[in-house]
Specification:
mainly alpha
């Protein structure tokens, strides 16, 4: 009886690890398949993609889908605008939001509660698209690069997360710095800000992804200026042209990309171009994410829960 019990105890871990491994492998396959399929479709010939049956490997290899995207010179300039917008918005948002979060975390600041309530209310109530447009217009931000930066300088959600993280830091460090004569700005810059690295990396990823993927604000506030067009907006216009019925979509892409109509009709299909656009838009963020991954879980958990 004892021998059977020992055998059972030995089998249980093996069975558990086997089943657990199978489930995790299945989960990885289900998670990766859509992205791998998109890569395969993006490298497959557009006319052949219409037949279907593309899974993890292209059936007819081609680079014409990517050539159709980068054939227009506007894409390269739009890429630089998106990079400048993402970098500048992320840096300013992180610094200013952290500075405000530090001020609202100080118990001696009398107005910290009402200001916090005001910011929290903005997460639940929005004036709407039309009042926001008129506000941007009255501020003189229409057709300006700063329309990408100024409206997103401080985020209420990011503010709450960073403030909660700062409140978990030992108060004794701030008190010791004040005894040594350090000002509030110096305490923030040399003590608090460096200690917030995990949560700042997490928030930086949120802000960067949001700024990189944004295109609707370009459509609303800067569509009349080609030199302010972002990569996402240009890709959106390109995708819209391929979704037009008949030959008008192919003709417009051929004119915009400098291709003849025969070449455009051979490569421009909604499925292939959409897949190539998805890869072009997601690769820069995928290259940045590994450097922030180690901070992501720690920063989000600590910044979201206060004991």
């Amino acid at each position: 009886m004892k021998a059977n019990t020992r055998t059972t105890f030995r089998l249980e871990p093996a069975v558990f690890h086997t089943v657990n491994s199978i489930l995790l492998i299945f989960l990885v396959m289900v998670t990766l398949y859509p992205f791998l399929n998109t890569i395969a479709v993006s490298f497959n010939d557009g006319n052949d993609t219409i037949r279907g049956g593309i899974y993890l490997w292209p059936r007819v290899w081609t680079l014409k889908n990517y050539n159709a995207i980068f054939a227009s010179g506007t894409v390269y300039h739009a890429f630089m605008i998106s990079v400048a917008r993402t970098v500048l918005a992320t840096i300013l948002n992180i610094f200013l939001t952290t500075m405000l979060a530090y001020a609202l975390s100080r118990k001696e600041y009398l107005f910290r509660k009402p200001i916090t309530v005001i910011y929290v209310l903005t997460m639940y109530f929005n004036a709407g698209l039309i009042p926001t447009y008129f506000l941007i217009k009255d501020l003189g931000l229409l057709n300006s690069f700063w329309v990408y930066i100024l409206p997103s300088l401080v985020s209420a959600f990011n503010l709450i997360v960073i403030r909660t993280y700062i409140q978990t830091l030992p108060e004794s460090m701030v008190e010791s710095a004040k005894i040594d004569g350090a000002s509030d700005f110096r305490i923030f810059l040399q003590i608090v800000f460096p200690l917030c690295k995990p949560v700042l990396a997490t928030i930086a990823l949120f802000v960067a992804v949001g700024a990189w993927n944004s295109w609707f604000d370009t459509f609303l506030y800067a569509s009349s200026k080609q030199n302010l067009s972002t990569l996402q907006y240009e890709l959106t216009k390109l995708l819209a042209s391929t979704l037009n019925t008949g030959g008008s979509g192919n003709a417009s892409l051929a004119n915009g990309a400098g291709m003849n109509k025969d070449m455009a009709s051979a490569v421009v299909t909604p499925l292939s171009i959409r897949a190539a656009i998805t890869i072009v838009a997601s690769v820069p963020i995928l290259l940045v994410y590994p450097f922030l991954q180690k901070y992501f879980v720690v920063g989000l958990n600590v910044g979201s829960v206060k004991e």
